TrEMBL record:
SUPFAM superfamilies: Heme-dependent peroxidases. It is an enzyme of class 1 (oxidoreductase). The keyword Endoplasmic reticulum does not apply. PROSITE patterns: PEROXIDASE_1 (PS00435), PEROXIDASE_4 (PS50873). Residues 1-191 form the Plant heme peroxidase family profile domain. Its EC number is 1.11.1.7. This is peroxidase. GO terms for molecular function: heme binding; lactoperoxidase activity; metal ion binding. The keyword Lyase does not apply. One of its GO terms (biological process) is response to oxidative stress. It catalyses: 2 a phenolic donor + H2O2 = 2 a phenolic radical donor + 2 H2O. It comes from Ambrosia artemisiifolia. Belongs to the peroxidase family. Ascorbate peroxidase subfamily.
Amino acid sequence: TGGPSWEVPLGRRDSLSASLSGSTQNIPAPNNTFQTILTKFKLQGLDIVDLVALLGSHTIGNARCTSFRQRLYNNTGNGQPDFSLDQSYAAQLRQNCPRSGGDQNLFFLDPVSPTKFDNSYYKNLIAKRGLLNSDEVLFTQNKQTMEIVTQYAENQELFFKQFAKSMVKMGNINPLIGESGQIRNTCRKVNS
């Protein structure tokens, strides 16, 4: 997809089982406040720079209508849309994300270059076209993250460099040690 590469540390132990609830409990929700998102990252040993860099992964992928509908119709419970979202973009989104129904309809997180890993995500945030509230708050709720977003929008290589560092850091969160888990022979399956 054109993104950066990085050296993945080898020898990490994988779990012998999977847990959907365990895999999602520490991930910010699309409508979390900035402070909630930052707290979730900090609890994992990630800082504000990691937060902005790692959310840049939203330069590819999709989100379901149900993940951002409240921004289009009832952002603060007063029946009004989110005015931090570009209103022409919001009108475009409403065409396939109705007030009710269409929960599973998919939308590109980055409508500019949806299949290319680049810095368009940050440019979208500056243009008030961040699809998820958890994205847009990086540019509207905190001065430090606003500055980082601007830097990454202007300098793709800076974003790529930090993204790679933050991915390695994230990959080292709570490693299994001792007899826990296993080093897999094939990444996709538990050893026989």
